[in-house]
Specification:
322 residues; single chain; alpha/beta; TIM Barrel
Length: 322
């Protein structure tokens, strides 16, 4: 495996902010060299190919290198909820999720912490495993796709399934809502590389992905032209090589940036999305039913940030193992 990247100066993500994180200087993502985690749980709200019978073993990483103005996880992406963990504790969390039957280890928003996470994966899979146990279920990389190709090279032999967003390909929208006009071109290049690394492959039973890429796209109310661009790109570049997950769960959250959509997706917009899927011939993947509530939004102050129907808490930044 390639050696992990250095944090000083930090050129890890596409922002290349140059912060001296080893000296305690916070980067754009708000983080130093410490790996901080907010929550870990058995989560049942992911795509069926990830959740299966056992649920997905989600590990929510504190901090973010993107900065979406309507982030549903703003408590951990902007407000810093989370606790620093050593490599051994990360490994212990992963092994505990596996022990409880998780189908995979689902690392959420870890793009700014690749070196530390790579070390934690190695520890969980190697002789440092708790009680002699080793991690042998797939590792998922659940991210915004705002990744550098160098960071993806570090993850290449450590990640089995990629779960990237493709939020938009429109530079104006990405500048307005995601705090970088370069998001679209960067995410598209990252997704192409992910597909090179991991072709689609399922376990022999259960329909669970053990290798591959699922591209997520969240449709924004009032901005369906952006979604059409994403669907067209997916049809041209990813059809047959990756699965699409079209999401309709946008919720007007606070704090949010000025001018962000202040409503849910409506039925007319949803019908348009379904027609476009048919037009582009995209039928391999998942399309979320029209969502009109925000009951699913997490609150990371709670021991279980999600509803009990969605999540079984395993570790929390305030309480440790639960």
């Amino acid at each position: 495996m390639k050696d992990t990247l250095d944090f000083s100066p930090c050129l890890l993500c596409p922002r290349r902010c140059g912060a001296d994180r080893a000296a305690g200087q916070g980067a754009y993502c708000g983080e130093t060299v410490e790996l901080r985690i907010a929550s870990a749980s058995i989560h049942r709200g992911e795509e069926p190919a990830l959740t299966g019978d056992g649920g997905s073993g989600t590990v929510f990483i504190t901090g973010c290198n993107l900065g979406c103005v309507f982030c549903q996880n703003y408590q951990i992406s902007r407000q810093g909820m989370g606790r620093a963990v050593k490599t051994e504790e990360f490994a212990a969390i992963a092994l505990r999720l596996q022990e409880l039957g998780a189908e995979n280890i689902n690392i959420v928003t870890g793009s700014h912490a690749v070196p530390a996470i790579a070390a934690g994966i190695d520890a969980a899979r190697g002789s440092a495993g708790q009680g002699g146990k080793r991690l042998d279920i797939p590792v998922l990389w659940n991210s915004s796709a705002y990744e550098s190709l160098e960071a993806l090279e570090v993850l290449k032999d450590r990640v089995d399934v990629y779960l990237p967003d493709l939020k938009t390909l429109d530079a104006g929208i990405s500048a307005r809502f995601f705090n970088t006009p370069a998001y679209g071109e960067t995410a598209a290049a990252a997704i192409l590389r992910m597909m090179e690394y991991r072709p689609l492959r399922y376990k022999r039973s259960g329909g669970i992905l053990e290798s591959g890429v699922i591209v997520r796209h969240l449709a924004l109310p009032g901005y369906l032209g952006s979604t059409r661009g994403v669907l067209g790109w997916f049809a041209e570049n990813c059809r047959g090589r990756a699965l699409l997950s079209l999401m309709t769960q946008y919720s007007p959250v606070r704090p949010a940036g000025e001018g962000t959509p202040g409503r849910f997706l409506n039925e007319e917009e949803y019908d348009t999305l379904i027609r476009w899927l048919e037009e582009f011939g995209i039928d391999d993947g998942f399309c979320q039913e029209l969502a009109g509530g925000d009951e699913w939004l997490p609150d990371f102050r709670r021991e279980n940030p999600f509803s009990s129907d969605l999540s079984l808490p395993v570790w929390h930044w305030r309480f440790g193992f639960i």
